[in-house]
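User: Here's a protein and a ligand (zinc ion). What would the complex look like?
Assistant: Let me lay out the input and then the predicted complex.
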Amino acid sequence: MQVTKQIHAIKIPFQIPVAPGKTLDRFVYSYLIYGAEICLIDSGIKSSERVIFDYIEKSGRAPDEISLMILTHSHPDHIGSAKAIKEVINCAVAGHANAKSWVEDMELQFRERPVPGFHTLVGGSVQIDRLLQDGERIDLGDITLEVFHTPGHSKCSLSLFCKEEGVLFAGDAIPQRNDLPIYDDVTVSVDSLKKLKSIDGIKYLLASWSDPKEGEEAYKMMDDGLNYLQSIHNAILKITDEAILRDPMRLCKQMVDDLGLPETAVNPLIARSFASHLKIHDMKNL
Ligand SMILES: [Zn+2]
């Protein structure tokens, strides 16, 4: 799907095996910036290279025009095809320094963050050639990207703003109401959201887990994300049973029930998000 003159969105559906015989339908977006060369933002899951290459060919360009692949963070659905793409195209791979250990050693990531279906989502490790820092500008010839380090969802999360087209690529930095709350640290996540909200001139918000948002909808999505985190915090503050507060999995179960999330959300990954609120239990407003 063409979003602006130079920016295209590719929606990649996939399934996560959550239990024997049970899968969860999801999708993730990868983005293309067409300049003199092509910049790819995120590589989707394992085997997404075919979808990405087909899209590029159908739009009249060639996959080997990809000169740079930026990984917004190290999670499986963003780096799944990076190895395969790098092997075919030999483009530069860019990401935050905090992504290096998990992108370059998938088995280390699996040991430290064993998400369901990890090996069905990730095709292998890849070297990060170019480290990106907050405030840096990436020159793509006739178009530039400003780099924002937006941790919280992960310590390596990057967002990218293309001023010429008014497009913000946010990866997974913005939580969505009724979706699974996944963040390492709620206060850091809130700071990142406020940082993104302060960017002037956003015409399109391109996140990984939602369809493109245009105009006021873009800023609204960021407000909704902040409100969602606040409502999670409010729900945690209402829990007074010390035994529940001391046990991350019991806290997770209680919160999943309170928020009306699916039962599959009772797992260590989501428990970590809720537990991060306990550090600021004395704070009312995020
Ligand atoms: Zn993620």
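Summary: The radius of gyration is 19 Å.
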